[in-house]
Amino acid sequence: MAPNELHRLYKRPPISDQQKRRELSLRRQEQSRRDAQLQARRLASTLFSLSSSQTLEETSEPDIDLVSEPQPDFQPENESVSSPSDLDLDVRQASKLRGSEARKWFARQLMLPEWMIDVPDRLSHDWLATRSYITTDSRQRNCQCHHFPRLCPACLTASGSCQSYSILDCIFHEMDQTYYVIDMICWRGYSLYDCTAEFRFFWLNSKLAETGACDPPSQYHRYRFSLVPIYTCDQSGLHSAYAGAVPYVKDGLLFYNKHAHYQPGNTPLALVWKDENCSQYVIDTDSKGQVPSQQQVVLELLHDGKLITSDDPPVVFGFLELEFTQKSGLHPGNLLRFSIGNGGLHTVDGKLEKADLHYFGKSNRARAFADSYSKIMFQYSVRHSPLRIDDLVASISSSDDEGNGPSDVEMAV
Amino acid sequence: MEVTQVLLNAQSIDGSVRKHAEDSLKQFQEQDLPLFLISLSQELSNDEKPVESRKLAGLILKNALDAKEQHRKLELVQRWLSLDSTVKTQIKTCLLQTLSSLAPDARSTASQVIAKIAGIELPQKQWPELIVSLLSTIHQLPAHVKQATLETLGYLCEEVSPDVLDQDQVNKVLTAVVQGMNASEGNNDVRLAATRALYNALGFAQVNFSNDMERDYIMRVVCEATLSHEVKIRQAAFECLVSISSSYYEKLVPYIQDIFNITAKAVREDEEAVALQAIEFWSSICDEEIDILEEYGADFIGDSSIPCFYFIKQALPALVPMLLETLLKQEEDQDQDEGAWNIAMAGGTCLGLVARTVGDDIVPLVMPFIEENITKPDWRQREAATYAFGSILEGPSADKLTPIVNVALSFMLTALTNDPNNHVKDTTAWTLGRIFEFLHGSTMDAPIITPTNCQQIIRVLLQSMKDVPNVAEKACGALYFLAQGYEDVGPSSPLTPFVQEIVQSLLTVTHREDAGESRLRTAAYETLNEIVRCSTDETASMVLQLLPVIMMELHNTLEGQKLSSDEREKQGELQGLLCGCLQVIIQKLGSSEPTKYAFLQYADQIMGLFLRVFACRSATVHEEAMLAIGALAYATGSEFAKYMPEFYKYLEMGLQNFEEYQVCAVTVGVVGDICRALEDKILPYCDGIMSQLLKDLSSNQLHRSVKPPIFSCFGDIALAIGESFEKYLMYAMPMLQSAADLSAQTSGADDEMTEYTNTLRNGILEAYSGIFQGFKNSPKTQLLIPYAPHILHFLDSIYMERDMDDLVMKTAIGVLGDLADTLGSNAGSLIQKSVSSRDFLNECLSSEDHLIKESAEWAKLAISRAISTTEAVGLEVVTNSCIITNIFTNICISMELGSDFVTEEWIFKVLQMVGNLLQ
């Protein structure tokens, strides 16, 4: 029977510094575990979808393009090349991937804007940003390709460890050897996926400068980083974005819904728009740089002969007979090029009813995806009844009139 | 063998005689245990024998039944249970006889041994007649036997848990005890034994306390006992009241006024031992109400939660003056005595708890006392006033306290510099620390510390660090909280201009000759740690300069040779402090890129020092160095691989340290750090680590709190090495499954068990998460398919139990996603068929907790993908023909997977793990 000889703490804090050290260590470990877990989930999960997308039902191996290509600029210097068949990757491993495999992998991580077919409601209220697009190479007509040079600043600065990595969405501009950063997905291990576009741009602006990445190149970073200017999406902002001078070749404007989180894949919450004034490449060109007389589209072949876009869920544009596919040696998963005949595209209430497709051949092997629905429709409208800058301006001024208040929308060029 | 003589010799002052006797006893025990135990019990019961030999016989007997170490204790229990029943009966008879002995020591020893045997046998439903045989004749017994019987009951209640006795037995015990306590009992020894027995028996009285009449009776008897003429009885009765205040808080309404009256009288008039318990009663009521009000604040609306009766608030006008009076009863030099505990300390502590309970209301009741006494010539009055002020700084709002503190601050600074009395200075420095702890920080609307007074405050504190050790220690403490308040102040800290001087002063303190007194050196290093933790980019260079200084200090501790055991202990302590400091520095410098590179040039040297510290082998150092190494691994990343060959053996030693479970726990965490740093480069060490972790799980010696982190560590390893985890699946999975089943069974127990169950679940789930993510996109994912049904069943059971905490919810829904993500179509149909996956997911999706929502959205994505592929592929997934719910089936799975490895020993290990998980 122990008598109650309770001595309470006298002039002592209830938690000792030693206990505090233990707890802080535990917290750091928990945070690291969570980061590792999130990283595994978020970044590698798209690989899974690559290998198990609808097109691959009958092929156990994902259709990986092993064309040897010049190595992209973002490779870390001292890492060995991992086996391309090893799909169990995280971003650090993925940074070792080469060629179209890397292209596929990273493209899956990216938010891909849809093409603006209609002016969205409340453009100046809920739609936050526009910014111009840069082309790096006139032969590369698929805008998605320009996204690929991504990099990890930790690798750039010759870090021994990529414990905390950053992922930037940027475009490499060959002429001035600069990466133009258009978005930030992950900063020093802190994920910005769940943050609104508004916040991401704020963070991007404030953090990138801190690292010195915008400074002239040194031995630790071969290339300069630069921010793409962001404008408020009012009359003058739109004007600056549309007509303002930039050190790079513009290729259209990008609009971001300011409430939207970063979402890998095609999203209607980011939109691209262009006309002849702000882009050299309004109408797609063919491999020789010529504008073809008929619009060309790239679609993906399914095992049942359906031809689909890269959207999720995909839009079915047409159908190939089994006999024809066998005869032409086509396989499910192939990306096929078609031209749109005089029959054009028929839509009823915004839904595609009928498309006059003519088979053209297999697409360039560098392609990772089929065209998206919005891209096809945009290209179609450019050739027939384009959406003009006046339409955008009109939309903003009409909603300004309604809103009366100052515009809280941002825009980038 | 002449037992008596040997027992007497074993207590001889002559070392060689003693040694010889001890050896003979040991030999006797090894040769013939039953006879040995019988001989001892006979010795104890024999009134002809000397008391000394009888006492020692009883003590050895007691030690043959119980041990501190859990595994040794279990061995002894088994050993006793396996003795021949005639032997046991013979021993018990002797013991019961001894209760009638005229020698008080013999009776008391026998009581304890009987209780130990009861503690072993009653849970086994053996010795059912014990209680009845003790109590049947209690009314006719002579006083000394009655006293021994009651004492036995008291020890018995301490040994066995309440569910072992049925209500009828409880009623009998309580009746005997309460009657023994009654004022009508003329014999003080009997009454004291009964009162002490009640203290232990209170835990058995749930039912009786729910009955108004029985409770009234018990409370009346206890209160009467507080008025006994015998001080020990009064003290024991107040101890009962303290215990009642926490166990039966909600039953106290009818008695609280009377209890206040008797406690107030005791605090003012009674002897200190009694007064301390009377104060403790109110401290304990504060504890209860603080807990309840905290639950109210967290707007937790549990059905079983106890309402607050606001006893403290109601008693406040009388309670506070009573406590203030106690503050004037200080002892001289109490601050120099580590173990001191007196009425002034207890009163001030209680005042602090009252302030936390009632908040602002206490301030007007205490302020007049402070104002009246703080300038008095008698140091007692100044100290009491200061102590009262320091005590009420936690609880009341900043709005209420800030204006007062603004006035008091400069007075305090002057007192700390000029007051002639050490005691006053000690309390003043402590009060300053409390001011900074509770009223200074970035969340405060009106800052206490301004650019105008900051310099003066720091100057006074640095000056006080040269004062006597106890005052200097409090000054370090105040500086600690001063720094802490600037923790998240941003890139530019008001502390910056002073950091250099502060660091220098603290280092000087650590070198003081008398730094060993009043834990001054510890306080100085702890404050240094806090300064480092709160450093900003502006002061990063100073932290970097501090690094080689601390390294040199650590290096110096390694140079000493041939230390005495006392010196060795001091060296170990100092190494612990230095390793702790290095850990904090590493963590700080490692957290930003520029400082990390500057720091990494020292990594090799630091690691070399840590390895040498390990070689010195002292447990506390071990832990601190281990923590520091975790931080180092985090900072160095994959570079850490080069230290592994040398470090590995210490890692293993850490994992084997069952006794100091904190060391083991810390090491498990470091394994996680290393996994993340090395990734697949940890593979060569995984066999050793995994086998040690599995041993840890099966161990009955290792504290249970370490086991959930071990499961999480499985996940860390799997995530690091990916499909190479394959070879451990057959070991890890049955462990996980069995632990999962166990956690499903234990839910619904008390709060503590629910908390542990949730920690366990979280560990298990983190393991699954890591394993699934580790195997993702591997051709070997099909190895995981057989486990999926059980995991889904586990998730169902967690969901249905409805006692999971947010963390478990987050991890659980994440596992659902991981399972879908990795198994794809194979998981799709299983998930669709599972009982509650959909509801669970929907609930998590609508959760307000950001982390849960995040995990749920991920899971939703992964599941929808898995399900859509299921449909497209049209695969007929093998459905779970059986939901695996017991351990044996789990083991069968591992047999299918690799029958070569599943031995009986292995099955035994799993069973052992399950058995020990809850101990």
TrEMBL record, chain A:
The record's Gene Ontology cellular component field reads:
cytoplasm; nucleus
Subcellular localization, as worded in the UniProt entry = Cytoplasm; Nucleus
Q: Where is the Snurportin-1 m3G cap-binding domain?
A: 109-270
According to the UniProt entry, its GO molecular function terms are:
RNA binding
Q: What would be one Pfam family of this protein?
A: SPN1_m3Gcap_bd
- In this chain, composition skew of type Basic and acidic residues spans 18-36
The reply on keyword Nucleus is yes
Under the heading InterPro entries, the entry gives: Snurportin-1, Snurportin1_C
Any signal peptide, and if so, which residues? none
In this chain, the stretch annotated as Disordered covers 1-38, 51-89
The record ties this protein, via SUPFAM superfamilies, to: DNA ligase/mRNA capping enzyme, catalytic domain (SSF56091)
Regions annotated as coiled coil: none
> What UniProt keywords are attached to this protein's entry?
Cytoplasm, Nucleus, RNA-binding, Transport
Which Gene Ontology BP terms does the record give? snRNA import into nucleus
Function of the molecule:
Functions as an U snRNP-specific nuclear import adapter. Involved in the trimethylguanosine (m3G)-cap-dependent nuclear import of U snRNPs. Binds specifically to the terminal m3G-cap U snRNAs.
**Family under the similarity heading:** Belongs to the snurportin family.
* Protein's name according to its UniProt entry: Snurportin-1
Q: Record the organism.
A: Rhamnella rubrinervis
UniProtKB/TrEMBL annotation, chain B:
| GO CC, alphabetical | cytoplasm
Pfam family, any one: HEAT_EZ
Which InterPro entries does the UniProt entry name for this protein? ARM-like, ARM-type_fold, IMB1_TNPO1-like_TPR, Importin-beta_N, Importin_beta
List, alphabetically, the SMART domains matched: IBN_N
Q: Which UniProt keywords apply?
A: Cytoplasm, Protein transport, Repeat, Transport
Q: Which GO terms describe its molecular function?
A: small GTPase binding
Domain (Importin N-terminal): residue spans on this chain: 21-101
Q: Which intervals of the chain form a coiled coil?
A: none
The main location is: cytoplasm
Q: Which GO terms describe its biological process?
A: protein import into nucleus
> The organism sits in which domain of life?
Eukaryota
- Write out the annotated subcellular location: Cytoplasm
PANTHER family listed in its UniProt record: IMPORTIN BETA
Family designation: Belongs to the importin beta family. Importin beta-1 subfamily.
Q: What is this protein called?
A: Importin N-terminal domain-containing protein
UniProt organism field: Rhamnella rubrinervis
Q: What is the lineage of its organism?
A: Eukaryota, Viridiplantae, Streptophyta, Embryophyta, Tracheophyta
